[in-house]
């Protein structure tokens, strides 16, 4: 994919026309090749962009306007349908090039497995980084039905790459017993059920560190985000997730990249999920891109 020309499709609201002058790059990872319940997250990036047109450019949470942040929407990575291994390799290569250009990568998913190759590329650039994971699911399996490339495995792979002591999961309310036992015994941090309050307590321990943040939309209760592949009852509200994004923004951590994944628009004819997702992306841009 070329970075020297604007994406010809719909772009996130107020995307700049010049890649070279942008601090951040929005890109899509339209992959749902390994989902175990309901497919459709490959359509998430495009629908988030479309929903962003209805946003106000000003955020009262951050007291900032999108004109204050320079970002370029590069469109979606053209991933080969059904080929998970090749798709992951393409994502890793793509992020490596973005980092070579000095850009802040902000990804739109796609299933959660897409975070794995992003973190591999980020880790080469920032070997001492920490990983903040906001999700309903632990994603700590070694494999799912014999398949190691699965949306159930990315956080386990990341633990093995950067060390479990550098992984911080919030909002977790679903997973195998073995996943929770691994979290407890490995040294990683896992906060169950809630996000904002445990994050508030944990962030001071990450002061001054570089962090990558991944947000799975299913951390929200299905009442707030029914448009996702593996909805889990008992989740947080949209307002709590906005608060979490702001807490990270107000902290002393340095966010070096982020993604928002698992938006599956087909399961939400009301469009509240993509509307919420686009707002979260706005807050991530305003709060985390320096």
Automatic annotation (TrEMBL):
Catalysed reaction, written as an equation: agmatine + H2O = urea + putrescine
Keyword Methyltransferase annotated: no
EC number in record: 3.5.3.11
Keyword Zinc-finger part of the UniProt annotation: no
Cofactor note as given: Binds 2 manganese ions per subunit.
Pathway: Amine and polyamine biosynthesis; putrescine biosynthesis via agmatine pathway; putrescine from agmatine: step 1/1
InterPro entries assigned: Agmatinase-rel (IPR005925), Ureohydrolase (IPR006035), Ureohydrolase_dom_sf (IPR023696), Ureohydrolase_Mn_BS (IPR020855)
Keyword field: Hydrolase, Manganese, Metal-binding, Polyamine biosynthesis, Putrescine biosynthesis, Spermidine biosynthesis
GO MF term list: agmatinase activity; metal ion binding
Cofactor field: Mn(2+)
GO BP annotations, alphabetical order: putrescine biosynthetic process from arginine, via agmatine; spermidine biosynthetic process
Residues at which Mn(2+) binds: 112, 135, 137, 139, 216, 218
Family assignment from sequence similarity: Belongs to the arginase family. Agmatinase subfamily.
NCBIfam families: agmatinase
Function per UniProt: Catalyzes the formation of putrescine from agmatine.
PANTHER family the UniProt entry points to: ARGINASE/AGMATINASE, GUANIDINO ACID HYDROLASE, MITOCHONDRIAL
Protein name: Agmatinase
Organism of derivation: Virgibacillus necropolis
Lineage: Bacteria, Bacillati, Bacillota, Bacilli, Bacillales
Name of the gene this protein is made from: speB
């Amino acid at each position: 994919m070329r970075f020297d020309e604007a994406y010809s499709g719909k772009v996130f609201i107020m995307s700049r026309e010049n890649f070279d002058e942008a601090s951040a790059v929005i890109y899509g990872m339209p992959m749902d090749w390994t989902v175990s319940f309901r497919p459709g997250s490959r359509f998430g990036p495009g629908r988030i962009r479309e929903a962003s047109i209805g946003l106000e450019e000003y955020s009262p949470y951050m007291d900032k306007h999108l004109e204050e942040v320079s970002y370029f929407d590069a469109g979606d990575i053209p991933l080969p349908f059904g080929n998970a291994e090749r798709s992951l390799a393409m994502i890793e290569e793509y992020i490596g090039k973005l980092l070579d250009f000095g850009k802040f990568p902000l990804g739109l998913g796609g299933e959660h497995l897409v975070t794995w190759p992003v973190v591999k590329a980020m880790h080469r650039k920032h070997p001492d980084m920490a990983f903040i994971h906001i999700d309903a699911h632990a994603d700590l399996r070694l494999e799912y039905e014999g398949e190691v490339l699965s949306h159930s495995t990315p956080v386990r792979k990341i633990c093995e790459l950067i060390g479990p002591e550098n992984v911080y999961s919030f909002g977790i309310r679903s997973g195998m017993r073995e996943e929770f036992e691994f979290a407890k015994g490995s040294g990683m941090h896992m906060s169950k059920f809630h996000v904002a309050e445990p994050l508030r307590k944990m962030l001071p321990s990450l002061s001054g560190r570089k962090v990558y943040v991944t947000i799975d939309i299913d951390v929200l209760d299905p009442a707030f985000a029914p448009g996702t592949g593996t909805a889990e009852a008992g989740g947080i509200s949209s307002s709590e997730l906005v608060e979490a994004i702001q807490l990270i923004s107000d902290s002393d951590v340095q966010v070096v990249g982020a993604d928002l994944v698992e938006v599956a628009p087909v399961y939400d004819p009301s469009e509240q999920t993509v509307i919420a997702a686009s707002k979260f992306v706005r807050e991530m841009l305003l709060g985390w891109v320096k």
